[in-house]
Design goal:
Protein name: Beta-N-acetylglucosaminidase
Organism: Aminicella lysinilytica
Pfam families: Cadherin-like (PF12733), SH3_3 (PF08239)
Structural class: alpha+beta
InterPro entries: Cadherin-like_domain, Cell_Wall_Dynamics_Protein, SH3-like_bac-type
CATH topology of one domain: Immunoglobulin-like
Strand content: 25-35%
Number of helices: 13
């Protein structure tokens, strides 16, 4: 068994500096500065045409200061056009912003060659002769109409507009009514991709647009996500997977299809599918369901070794992989973790080989409960390499230490109540309210949720195995295009994908890992990476970038503190403005943030034996005392989220057949069964507390637990007189749905000690045992 000693990397240019403080980050910023276009608006190419050259001014006014002079025929990039009048289109009232010089030139002094990006109107809107509502309306665009956006423009009052081309003419449209899609070059690439896919479209599951108005290709499985273009009725496209936005409903509005042809999602109700099946077999008995997810109704059971016919991959709301299978004349869903697509015929040489392979895994240090699952993966991916990493810990001790602190494992309230802790300090069982740990939705995860995410055996499938991927740099397949696939729903990260590749090369870190980490932290938000001005602690900050939420510790204003840290602020001094230069701070640009963050990860995590997505949260290779500490993010599901982003990108680009190495932690004395998933039902919770526990003797009432306060003790002792020969014990659960059993009702007392046990079982199945000891005095 390996002890995996890859953590000895040092930074180029000097030994890594290891911070002695615990930095725990959140998954999402708790604030946003402003929205940002999902696709960048192109800049125009400007050529100076004035014979004597032209001044670059500090603002859009002839009275402003001169910053420099540009000679005739000088070519510059122009990012936007500013109108200083409200009705006149005369070029002397229009200015071009030149970002290279951070200043303005008169519009009549420069000729422009425009770029273009496709957009779709989101409402009926006027196309005007200038940027401003007082300019003449020259054209009316209908909702859903495709336009070509050439450049940004701003009216006199700083409202944003787009210069759009329609036919051979240009108009100005308010930016808020245009949903940006893809650029002309991207459209060309999509058409090329589509042509390539058309060669194989009928040998795998494919679809045809049936909606009369066509269908919009979206960047994510949401109608509010950015448009990547519109496909007309009758268009054919490959469909590689199905994603559910609901945990229990099969309504078409909650189901989206992913098309690798167009690298986007389409509504399932807009497309009819032609399925192609792949024969496989189950590796264990499992339930069939009506949708992808354990929240859907069961619809039969398949025995181990049963033949199945997969028609498509599917993903539940938690991004776990399922298979849609043909079952008779209907379709059902089964967990992908328990299906194999290689031969299972008994007595064959392949069967013997797989048996030998499983034995070799056990010999290499994997428990049998790991080896059987990995052997199944090996059948589908023979080039993958699995390495057992000895933690030196028992499962019980590691799990207990991981859950010892309420602040080590966070979950969002979008997860069902069974995922949330009801321990002391985490929950008020009388009011049914949870203690918020960060933002407005982050609470402490339940022990069952932590054990579920911590048990490596739950994640030995084609998707989640990537939480154990070696995060070293591999130039063979860790390319810029894969990075783009990972961050495609964040416009700023997508347009700067090359920065992750550069950082990966510099610090020998997978750029896919870096991109997945950044996207998992930021999602589609750009508030941490747009350099906007903000004020914190009475100090004004600007040009602060943090691509990985480093330093954004849990609590109020977490994301702002992360930006202060990026500026050089000190964690130990409550993020007061600082001048620290560790890890290349201050991060005053996105490039510095991505590169400096990679340097931080190398020195503080990779060099600390936390060099996989799993180990960044579950710090189990530095001794028992370190477990539950030095976590990159407290979100208990973060390794799974990053694994999904990575595996999906690899699948889309055909990387899954490469040699990929996985380092999988092993604990001693693992439980015989894998740690099960908490209930996904919203009607079940973990409230297993009594709100009252009393007993009566004659006319006397002895109250052990009162509903006027919180009681976390479970053992109570009460002395009674010798004359009390029996008592009537009553107990009420704090939450409806919980059940009370045990020694309630009339109980006979013997002289001396009498012990009674009362159990409260939550609706999720957790049981809390109370002991009531009544001591009857001797005569």
């Amino acid at each position: 068994m390996l002890t995996k000693n890859r953590h000895s990397r040092i930074l180029r240019g000097g030994m890594a500096v290891i911070l002695s403080i615990l930095i725990v980050t959140v998954m999402m910023p708790s604030f946003a500065f402003s929205a940002s276009e999902s696709v960048s608006v192109p800049s125009a190419k400007g050529t100076i045409k004035q014979s004597g050259g032209v001044y670059v001014r500090s603002s859009s006014s002839l009275l402003s200061s001169v910053k420099t002079t540009l000679a005739k025929n000088k070519v510059v990039s122009v990012s936007s056009e500013k109108f200083t009048a409200t009705t006149s289109t005369n070029t002397k009232y229009r200015w071009c912003y030149v970002p290279a010089y951070k200043g303005y030139v008169r519009r009549d002094m420069v000729s422009l060659s425009f770029g273009n990006v496709q957009g779709t109107t989101t409402a009926t809107v006027y196309g005007r002769s200038g940027a401003g509502t007082k300019y003449a309306a020259k054209h009316t665009f209908s909702k859903g109409e495709t336009v070509t956006v050439a450049m940004k423009a701003y009216d006199k009052y700083k409202n944003k507009w787009y210069r759009v081309k329609y036919g051979s003419k240009y108009y100005f449209v308010l930016a808020e009514y245009v949903d940006l899609g893809v650029s002309t070059s991207e459209i060309s690439a999509i058409k090329t991709t589509a042509k390539a896919y058309s060669k194989v479209s009928t040998t795998s599951t494919y679809g045809k647009v049936t909606a009369s108005a066509g269908t919009v290709v979206r960047s994510s499985k949401s109608a509010s996500s950015s448009s990547k273009g519109t496909l007309a009725k009758g268009t054919s496209l490959n469909i590689s997977s199905e994603s559910f936005n609901s945990a229990s409903s099969t309504a078409s509005k909650y189901i989206w299809y992913y098309s690798p042809t167009y690298k986007g999602y389409v509504k399932s109700g807009d497309v009819s599918l032609t399925y192609k099946t792949k024969k496989g077999h189950t590796t264990d008995s499992l339930n069939m369901r009506t949708g992808a997810g354990t929240g859907f109704s069961k619809s039969g059971t398949l025995a181990s070794g049963a033949t199945v016919y997969r028609v498509m991959n599917a993903y539940d709301t938690g991004k776990s992989k399922w298979y849609k299978i043909k079952y008779g004349s209907t379709y059902r869903y089964v967990s992908a973790a328990y299906v194999s697509f290689s031969s299972s015929s008994g007595g064959s040489s392949e069967s013997t080989t797989e048996s030998d392979y499983e034995k070799s895994l056990i010999s290499a240090g994997f428990p049998a409960s790991y080896a059987s699952r990995l052997a199944t993966l090996h059948k589908s991916h023979p080039n993958w390499v699995f390495k057992a990493v000895d933690t030196g810990l028992t499962w019980s001790s590691a799990a207990a230490k991981q859950t010892a602190s309420n602040g080590s494992n966070a979950i969002q309230t979008v997860y069902a109540p069974s995922y949330r802790s009801t321990d002391k300090g985490c929950y008020n069982y009388l009011k049914d309210t949870y203690t918020i740990r960060d933002g407005s939705t982050w609470v402490t995860a339940s022990k069952k949720a932590v054990y579920y995410y911590m048990d490596p055996r739950n994640w030995l499938d084609e998707t989640n195995i990537f939480m154990f991927e070696d995060n070293g740099y591999n130039s063979e397949y860790q390319t810029e295009s894969i990075v783009e696939a990972v961050v495609q729903n964040n416009s700023v990260l997508y347009n700067n994908a090359s920065l992750f590749v550069d950082a990966g090369k510099t610090y020998d870190i997978s750029p896919i890992y870096l991109a997945a980490k950044s996207y998992t932290e930021l999602g589609g938000y750009t508030s941490m990476i747009n350099g906007k001005t903000f004020t914190y602690g009475g100090v004004k900050y600007k040009k602060c970038y943090n691509a990985y939420n480093i330093g954004a510790t849990d609590g109020a204003n977490a994301a702002i503190r992360g930006l202060v840290y990026a500026n050089g602020g000190s964690v130990s001094k409550d993020y007061a403005r600082g001048t620290s230069t560790s890890h290349g701070r201050a991060w005053s640009s996105l490039s510095k943030a991505i590169n400096g963050g990679a340097r931080y990860l190398c020195s503080d995590y990779i060099s600390n034996k936390q060099d996989t997505r799993y180990l960044e949260h579950f710090n189990v290779r530095n001794g028992l005392s370190s477990v539950g500490t030095h976590e990159y993010q407290t979100a208990v599901f973060s390794p799974k989220s990053m694994a999904y982003a990575t595996s999906k990108a690899y699948a889309d680009y055909g990387i899954l057949n490469k040699k990929i190495v996985f380092y999988i932690p092993v604990y001693s004395n693992m439980p015989s069964s894998v740690c099960s998933q908490p209930s996904t039902s919203w009607s079940k919770d973990n409230n297993y507390y009594l709100k009252t526990l009393n007993f009566t003797a004659g006319t006397d009432t002895y109250k052990q637990i009162k509903n006027s306060g919180l009681y976390y003790t479970t053992s109570f002792t009460q002395n009674v007189a010798n004359s009390v020969t029996s008592v009537n014990i009553t107990a009420l659960a704090a939450k409806s749905g919980a059940t009370v059993t045990g020694d309630t009702g009339v109980q006979t007392l013997q002289v001396g000690t009498n012990k009674f046990t009362i159990k409260c079982k939550s609706s999720s199945g957790m049981t809390r045992t109370y002991t009531l000891t009544i001591v009857r005095a001797s005569s």
